[in-house]
Amino acid sequence: MAKKGFTPEQIINKLREAEILLNQGATIAVVTKKIGVSDYTYYRWRKEYGGMRVDQARRLKELEQENSRLKRLVADLSLDNAILKEATRGNF
Q1: What residues have CB less than 8 Å from 75, skipping those under 6 apart?
Q2: Distance, CA of 63 to CA of 3 (rounded, Å)
Q3: Residue 8 confidence (pLDDT) above 60
Q4: CA–CA distances in Å: residue 28 to residues 1, 18, 33, 36, 69
Q5: Phi then psi for 19, rounded to 5 degrees?
Q6: What letter does residue 92 receive in the DSSP assignment?
Q7: Could you identify which of 27, 41, 66, 89 might form a hypothetical disulfide with 37, taking C-beta atoms 3.0 to 4.6 angstroms apart as the criterion?
Q8: What is the pLDDT of residues 22-75, one digit of tens each?
Q9: CA distances from residue 29 to 26, 59, 75 in whole angstroms, order as listed
Q10: Burial, 8: exposed, middle or buried (Cβ in 10 Å; 0-12, 13-18, 19+)?
Q11: How much is the pTM?
């Protein structure tokens, strides 16, 4: 099954729709079918995005991307540092 890759805005809108349906008395199975996701995805989204506004979710994703980028930079610099230490160790 292909990953759809919903944006944070779409996720929050689907969670709002689900909340409305649940308040009207629908079951989780009916709600998840209506919004087009699995039960697992619904609960995962609710855990991550529950109670967020669209701008907060957008900022969260931006911070996660920045954090990922910074972690890669640190890993690259640590590797470069280790290589340089190893190279200088052999010269003495």
Answers
A1: none
A2: 22
A3: yes
A4: 21, 8, 8, 12, 37
A5: -65, -40
A6: -
A7: 41
A8: 999 999 999 999 999 999 999 999 998 888 888 888 898 899 999 999 999 999
A9: 8, 30, 43
A10: buried
A11: 0.64
CB atoms within 10 A of CB 59: 13
Q: Which long-range contacts (CB under 8 A, 24 or more apart) does 53-58 make?
A: 53/12, 54/8, 54/9, 54/12, 57/8, 57/9, 57/11, 57/12, 58/8, 58/9
DSSP track, 1-68: -------HHHHHHHHHHHHHHHHTT--HHHHHHHHT--HHHHHHHHHHHTT--HHHHHHHHHHHHHHH
The two tokens of residue 76 are: 């690259």
Q: Report phi then psi at 24, rounded to 5.
A: -85, 0
Q: Do 28 and 42 touch, CB atoms closer than 8 A?
A: yes
